[in-house]
Amino acid sequence: MLDKLVLHLFVKSKYVDFYDLHTDKPIPYFDLNKLPAEIPTVGDIYKTEENGVILKTLENEKTKYESLASSHSGMAFKFFHNGRNCDPYVELKCSPAKLLQGHNLYGFDDIQLAAQNMIALLSVAYPVFYKMLNLTNIQVSEIDINYSVFIADPQAKKMFMDHLRYVSNGQTKSRDSNYSTTSYFGAKNSRIKKLKVYSKIEEMENDAVKMEKQGFLESAKIIREEALTDRAKQAVRFEATIKKRFLQKRGIPTDLIGLCRYMREKDEAYKLLFNEAWKDIFKALEGHTMKLVDNDSVYNAIKSEFQTVTKTGRVSLVKVNRLFSFYQTLKTFGYDHASTLSTRVMFYYNVTDLIKCGFSKSFLQNLHKDSGAVVIQMSKYITIDFDNQVPDGYQIPKNLDFEGYGRIVSIC
Question: Could you give the number of structural domains in the chain?
Answer without folding.
Answer: 2
